[in-house]
Amino acid sequence: MENLSNATCFDEGRKICQHDEEECRANLIESCARVHAPSQMSFVRFLTCFEGPSSSSAKACASSAGIDPSALNECADGAEGARLDMESARATARFGDGRLGTPWIVVNGKHLDDPSELLRAVCDAYEGPDVPKGC
């Protein structure tokens, strides 16, 4: 197993929160929503609701996005959620501790220095059959 003790997301191998416990809980819920969403679009609807200006509850956002709120809750409170949370923390730690702050935007495994270039980076990385309208 890789040594992550020097990464900013870990302290002696234990995950630590960058901001506070509330943010860590939200990240855990989002990890669970990602795997329990029936589609990518459903997951995006969940994120838009959960992270949006009205900051709705996870249960309400799950319901409106077509994600089973009970499955989301069971995941977040159980071993599955703990596993997903650590996977996400490890993936973040692999970028090292040289991050200048958040948001830390990554497209196809590459850091995006200029957030205003996000659309172009996503469009350039898109490999589907039809170019999305926004591109």
Task: Write structural notes for this entry.
Helices cover 50% and strands 6% of the residues. It folds into two domains: 10-96, no CATH class; 105-135, no CATH class. It is built from six helices and four strands, in the order ββαααααββα. The protein starts with 9 loop residues before the first strand and ends in a 10-residue tail after the last helix. The relative contact order is 0.12. Residues 1-7 have low confidence and may be disordered. A hairpin with a 2-residue loop joins β1 and β2 (14-15). The strands form two sheets. It has a two-stranded antiparallel sheet with strand order 1-2. It has 135 residues and is mainly α. It is globular, with a radius of gyration of 16 Å.
Strand pairing plus helix content: what structural class? mainly alpha
General form: globular
- Please give the number of β-strands: 4
Q: Point out poorly predicted stretches.
A: 1-7
- Rg over CA atoms: 16 Å
Taking strands numbered 1, 2, ... along the chain, how are they ordered across the largest sheet? 1-2
The largest sheet, given as strand count, sense and whether it forms a barrel, is: 2 strands, antiparallel
The separation of the N and C termini measures 40 Å
Q: Which bin fits the share of residues in helices?
A: 40-55%
